[in-house]
Input
Amino acid sequence: MRFDEAYSGNVFIKSHQNFEESSVVLYGMPMDWTVSFRPGSRFGPTRIREVSIGLEEYSAYLDRELEEINYFDAGDIPLPFGNPQKSLDMIEEFVDKVLAEGKYPLGMGGEHLVSWPVIKAMYKKYPDLAIIHMDAHTDLREHYEGEPLSHSTPIRKAAELIGPENVFSFGIRSGMKEEFEWAKQVGMHISKFDVHQPLKEVLPKLAGRPVYVTIDIDVLDPAHAPGTGTVDAGGITSKELLASIHEIAHSDVNVVGSDLVEVAPIYDPSEQTANTASKIIREMLLGWAFKK
Output
């Protein structure tokens, strides 16, 4: 797949449709083949793009605007419906190509399993990679009902690949007891319930390191993001999530890639979730990818 042929449909606001001149590649991973509760996140990337037209191009938080960053919206990777392994292979191949061109990959899911092949690609380029993970769920299962390819397993897979001491999870409020016990046993960092304050304490430890950031929209309380497949009460506010994104932006952490996953527009007729996700993507672009 050539990058200049990858896109069909709408683009995220202010996307520059010239791959060669862009420093960042925005792309969709429309997969929800392995979800354990409600499907629909495969429609997330398209709707995030569509509602982005209502965004201000200027970030009052960062005093930057989208006109200042060249990014290319590559559209959605054409994943084969119902085939998890082939879909994951295609995502990894796509991100391999983005990284080979020296671009910053910013992905939109899709279920959280789509982060796994991206992390594999990132680790090949950055062997000292660390991961910042914001989520309601641990995602540390080895399998779900006997199936290892599940959206409840990507962080376990990532921890086993790069070392659990290099994975930092925040906002966690749901998971099996065995998952929490495993994390404690192997030395993985889990901050329960909150994000911003524990993140501030961890960031100095990651200064100078290449870091991949993965955000599951359900880290937000359902009052702020009802449009997701597995809602979980007791989450953070959108204000806290934005503050956390900006905390990373102002730190010495080298964010080398990122994603936002699990937006399922069908469960939110108000489109609050998609609009929030669109704003988060803007802040990720201007906060983390701005200098790439």
